[in-house]
Amino acid sequence: MIRTVLGLLVGVFLGGPARGGDDPKPARSPAEQFAALMKAFEADKAAYAAALDAAKSDAEKQTASDRYYAKRDAWRAEALRLLRQHPAEPAGFEVIHTYLYIADLDTPDLVTLIRKHHQAHPDLDRAFYDLAMSTDREGWEYVAEVADGHPDRAMRGRAAYHLGYTAKQRLVRPDKHRWIGRQKEAGIRALAEKYLTLAAEKYADVPIKSGVQAGKVGAWATADLAGLKNLAALRVGGTAPELAGNDLDGKPFKLSEVARGKVTVVVWWASWCGPCLKMVPHEKELVERLKDKPFALVGVNSDAELADAVAAAKKHGITWRSVRGTEGTPVDSAWNVQKWPTVYVLDAQGVIRFIDVRGEKIDAAVDELLAEMEKK
After folding, report:
1. DSSP symbols for 117-130
2. Pairing state of beta strands 263-269 and 342-346?
3. How far apart are CA 158 and CA 311, in angstroms?
4. Residue 124 main-chain phi, psi, to 5 deg
5. Is residue 129 within 8 Å of 210, Cβ to Cβ?
């Protein structure tokens, strides 16, 4: 099946030989071939999403997934063929970036292509995260190479940040993120500290835009360094770190003040997070039920734009306070948040007692902690 799909990709999107009676089609340029390949990728992705939405059973979803991944394998094979045939074509960098994003495969070959032909590409930094997260050493070693000696200062700063950030991610979620060579935790921490400190001290003014990370390298690196220091605290039994910023009305907010002497539920949410918004009806019930108790519900909003957060709060009736980092001060990284929603339940002394409970388990956790307060 993969060969069949690959043949269709080559023939339909990249142009094949003329058939009897047809006027010969002019050969497509390398840039046009890469553009057609990316168009095919986006079309396959959209068709897969539509198939999942239309699926009425798990079996139909599995069939849609099988078809999509077969197409994706064929896409990767055609991508490698084109990249090897036209290694210096600038349009090929988008294909390399997409390849790295969808699969942790062939990284050494792709790094060689980047080093030889795309080192000066203006969007080189778009590949840093996936390269640094690769299970092949060549990926993160290349990012370190850029951080240590690329001629462009901005690229050095972004590479340093991404390398430090991904090292920290491996410490936060060792169950999810593998590290090539099985380095010990101390070595990974040293790498994270080295490059995050480098980013914060030498490249603080360098702009960055990557996923939810937008702003200046210095602010993000400083927040991630705080997250490194907070690793031990952000576990059951640890004392919750400070969480400071402004609420959605622009008023100053400090968790230590809002949560003092109260059982507190802290929920990370965003307007783009469906599971977060599905929690809101239950959160409303919790707030109403405990309105006369020493209890607080605090939201931590991760929207890039304040207007999106305000609109979502109004639409869904979120009346409790939500904090956002002040400009240039990310709060998610300092608390090592990697998924939304993330939930912490604190006792009246600010000690983390439960993490990522949902639904009735939140009620049970809060009621248990309130009962402890009443006994004292």
Report:
1. H-TT-TTGGGGHHH
2. antiparallel
3. 32
4. -55, -35
5. yes
- Dig out the tokens for 333 from the structure: 């990284």
- Residue 328: partners with Cβ closer than 8 Å, 6 or more residues away: 215, 216, 219
| DSSP, residue by residue, 226-290 | HHHHHTTTSSTTSBPPP-EEEETTS-EEEHHHHSTTSEEEEEEE-TT-HHHHHTHHHHHHHHHHT
Residue type at 271 in one-letter notation:
S
Angstrom distance (rounded) from CA 301 to CA 373: 29
SS3 for 345? strand
| CB contact set of 112 (below 8 Å; sequence gap of 6+) | none
Listed residue (290, 283, 245) closest to 266, CA to CA = 283
Phi, psi of 365 (to 5 degrees): -65, -45
Residue bearing tokens 């799909």: 5
- Listed in sequence order, the residues at least 6 apart from 114 whose beta carbon sits closer than 8 Å to its beta carbon are 93, 96, 121, 124, 127, 142
CA distances from 321 to 10, 151, 157, 247, 258 (A): 55, 46, 35, 6, 10
Which residues, listed in sequence order, are joined to residue 301 by a DSSP beta bridge?
A: 269
The 3-state DSSP class for residue 152 equals coil
Q: What is the pLDDT along the chain (376 residues), one digit of tens a residue?
A: 444 444 444 444 444 444 445 556 678 999 999 999 999 999 999 999 999 999 999 999 999 999 999 999 999 999 999 999 999 999 999 999 999 999 888 999 999 999 999 999 999 999 999 999 988 889 999 999 999 999 999 999 999 999 999 999 888 887 655 554 456 778 899 999 999 999 999 999 999 876 556 789 999 999 999 999 999 999 999 999 999 999 999 999 999 999 999 999 999 999 999 999 999 999 999 999 999 999 999 999 999 889 999 999 999 999 999 999 765 567 888 999 989 999 999 999 999 999 999 999 999 999 999 999 998 7
What is the Cα–Cα distance from 204 to 198, expressed in whole angstroms? Answer: 9
CA-to-CA distance for 230 and 236, rounded, in angstroms?
13
CB atoms closer than 10 angstroms to residue 148? 13
DSSP 19: P
The amino acid at residue 147 is A
The pLDDT value given to residue 5:
44
CA distance 201 to 188: 20
